[in-house]
Specification:
Blueprint: H1 2-8, E1 18-19, E2 22-23, E3 28-31, E4 35-38, H2 40-43, E5 46-49, H3 58-65, H4 69-81, E6 86-90, H5 98-110, H6 113-116, E7 119-123, H7 127-136, E8 142-146, H8 152-164, E9 168-172, E10 174-175, E11 178-179, H9 183-200, E12 208-211, H10 227-241, E13 246-248, H11 262-279, E14 283-285, H12 299-309, H13 316-332, H14 337-342, H15 351-354, H16 362-372, H17 378-389, H18 392-412, H19 418-443, E15 450-455, H20 463-474, E16 478-481, H21 488-497, E17 502-506, H22 511-525, E18 532-535, H23 541-548, E19 555-557, H24 561-573, H25 575-610, H26 615-618
Parallel strand pairs: 5-6, 5-14, 6-7, 7-8, 8-9, 9-12, 12-13, 15-16, 15-17, 17-18, 18-19
Antiparallel strand pairs: 1-2, 3-4, 10-11
Amino acid sequence: IRAIAKAVKGLAARKLSMKTGHSVDRTLKVSGLEAVEVDVKKRNFTNVGERTNVAGSRKFARLIASGDYEAGLQIAAKQIEDGASIIDINMDDAMLDSAREMERFVRYISNEPAVAKAALMIDSSHWETILAGLKNAQGKCIVNSISLKEGEDAFVEKARAIKSFGAAMVVMAFDEEGQATTYDRKIEICSRAYRLLTEKAGVAPEDIIFDVNILSIGTGIEEHAKYAIDFIEAVRWIKANLPGALTSGGVSNLSFAFRGNNAVREAMHSAFLYHAIKAGMDMAIVNPSMLQVYDEIEPELLKCVEDVIFDRDAQATERLIEKASRLMEEIAGQAGNDGKTNNACQAGDDNSRHARPDRASLEERLKNALVKGRSENLEADLNEAMERYGSALNIIEGPLMAGMETVGALFGDGKMFLPQVVKSAKVMRDAVTILEPFMNIDSKGSTRPKVVIATVKGDVHDIGKNITAIVLSCNGFEVRDLGVMVDKETILEEAERADADIIAVSGLITPSLYQMEEICREMKARGMIKPLFMGGATTSALHTAVKLAPLYDHVFYGADASAAAVMAKKYMMDRAGFEAECHMEQEKIRSLYEAGNKTQEQKVEWKIKVNGFAKDTYSEALPESIGYMELPIEEAMPY
């Protein structure tokens, strides 16, 4: 280095062909050991492999948690083999030191040519983790991501830092007000970000990649119906109006409502990409092995999928649900009558299934109404239930509660789709409305239980929270939604002012975890005993039990909107019993975690000895075992 510096001292740098400070061709070029040119005209489309992401792949998360980086590299190699020229690396998990794991895994990559040839997308919501990736990666990376959510000054400062590492950057369509969900908000935020990056931060347009938020469609919620169209049209606008800028997105979000049915999800992804690429989409984060050739998608399925993508009519989601249910029947094959009977996705397939099961018991009819999302005979059944159970509260706590638990279990098992869960929640709302006059008599004028819900400070994602609020409302709760980026003081003060029965907070990204810890500490400091429900992609039963429960005795994890509603009902019915059951489960999780830690530390120590390392010189690099071997990693909502 000294000799080279001496040889070129005093020499002017070579002059590039420049236009307003940037290269004329405006083509994004990134690299690992090999160069990757992102040019939709030459390559048509660039695939970014998504499976080296602890939040998106349970297998990869387990491998990283156990320190098996070699096996983790094989996942990356398989993504490249299947067509990815860029791989997305994400280590954001509640139980990992994400910066340390990012540094380690990127260094492992540099020693494996089959993986190192690809360019890296350093993906994290934690700034220190992004820096760790950039400092240890070879070639020219892409950072995923920055946004305007913390304001213009922080945005420009981070962009300049990324530029100093020579990296390109993904810019999310978020600002201080939250996530852009409509076409107008998407183009407004991207236009503002483009101006700041090119004029203030000095970033080349070809190093800007806009992600205008691929969001879930087919959820059964009306305002979600145009999410796919708005994304495609925003891509078209960016390519026409922001010269040189590229576009990208996380495709798996699109089909989350149909999790558990890979045939439908693959068709949705493939059809969506076909139309988005035609609009000018340059790249996407997607599992390349989970795509179909557009022309080879079964015609009826393709029509159902495209009807939902383009929101062609109000019944499009219903038709896709019916098609998805038939596909699941075919996949089940000759699994037997039990599998067919218990598969709630079949609810709504044809008119014969909607016929009232007259021979079924009252309890079975009420459960079926919730599972199938149908309320034709609901009032008659509830009137009969009033005669049998004697009070509205007993009906809610009995057969209706049992029905909602069934819905939650089926959704958790991938046997029920999100739009069906939303329909179930609406039937529950109808049931509560029918029972309300009796409830007023029973409760002597008492009001509905109150829930204060918010996305924590540092996070602008709110769609999962909004779905949870809808489901809670449909289950008879008065929900006060404080929005996004809400600090702990505001959340707790509103809960005290409203005399809330439950506080619920959500977070998608890693910084949310620190805010949740702070909320727990603050609630304990104030001597509060209100239950705190946690949800969102960053949280898990493991994180809540190990990290949060020791800070506050009344914190509980809700896996999804349906589970949160069941938890809230159970809490209101029997707080002491609910807490005792949850504390027992949390203690069990902590015990498994600690046992897993001890086992893994022994494995790591043995591995170090075998490889001739002295432990005292390597102690800083010891992986933190987190005991995933016996614990499930929940599939998170992509919001």
